Amino acid sequence: MVGDMVQPRRLRVRFLAGVTLTAALIAGALSSPAAAVQAAPAGIAPFSAPLNGTAGASALTGLAAPATFTHPGVLVGRSQLDFIRSKVNAGAQPWKAAYDQMMASSYASLSRTAKPRAVVECGSYSNPNYGCTDERQDALAAYTLALAWYVTRDNRYADKAIEIMNAWSAVITDHTNSNAPLQTGWAGSSWPRAAEIIRYTYTGWTSTAVTRFATMLRTVYLPEVINGSNSNGNWELSMMEAALGISVFLEDRTSYDRAVAKFRGRVPAYIYLTGDGSLPKGPPNSGIDTSAEIIKYWQNQSTFVDGLSQETCRDFTHTGYGISAISHFAETTRIQGQDLYPEIGERLRHALGFHSKYQLGTAAPSWLCGGSLTLGLGPVTEVGFNALHNRMGIAMTNTQTLTERQRPAGTNALFVAWETLTHANNPG
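The chain above was modelled as a monomer; its predicted structure follows.
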């Protein structure tokens, strides 16, 4: 599988002693499946780990988490789900073809058996791979089955999604080895998407199981991702996507604000605009500040143009991970009533257009990565293209051509899945 560079393992503090259930849950406020659909998610005590000196969201422009969270509200909201269902049931394209592709995949199988592990160990490029692939694929399967449930209203799909989520929440305790932060970010991005749909549209997930799943996210996933990473930008962006989705499911405003703060600092350090000056911005608190340090961090690229990514000269595949996580993060904030697209949209527009141009076959000039590009952007353009072009009316010729050519967009088997189905021309 396509992995990432070795990152020095940092000390991870679990703060298990601070994890408590709210009185509402203890009192059994979610005692019936019917109540589970209406009540707030399992209430776990707010996470209180330090941010390693990173300023909070309020220090940037006064943004704060929503006073009331919207559910389902991670990557896809209820109006978007209703749009998907109506299009598929009408046999409209490209949604019906995208749905058929999803349903034909192994992720939608009703005979799937989860493969949970207590400890998932992932080294660089998932070597060793002790549960890494199994965890990512089970998380993507839970999300796939949740989408299948919403479209079909066939309880079997919801029950299978619950079975997978319950299996992992009963077992997993940790992620270890050098790729643990990235692995946790990838799987942790998919779990809350599935959980949000099932938790708020289906009555069959018991309050006890919801609480246990929430505790898993709180104690196993959130501490691993919330403080970010000084590795390549796709690491931190995926980790913040996971942190944001988990925060929505837990209704944790403190962690939500922390994820937003990290994200808003990282995006300008990942995608360059000429307004940044002669050099890209360094990641906050990374110690990457001088011209030589920044050029080395940007894969030895020394000419900077609008839309260039910190990982463009590494390869388009990892760049696609970063672009996708940016789009996913902004989409979730939009659903939550805190739209970050206006803030990051110009960078995202240029990044999508720049990389789409070369992915479509334009030869690289000599000043760009020495005239040699490693392509493979992946199925990552639908969410950003829909938001910027369809909702905001921005012309994006190259991105549109690539997006339509790649339909129906499938999955990268990591954390991207079925985005033609979920976001193609979706106004919700």
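The two ends are 34 Å apart (CA to CA).
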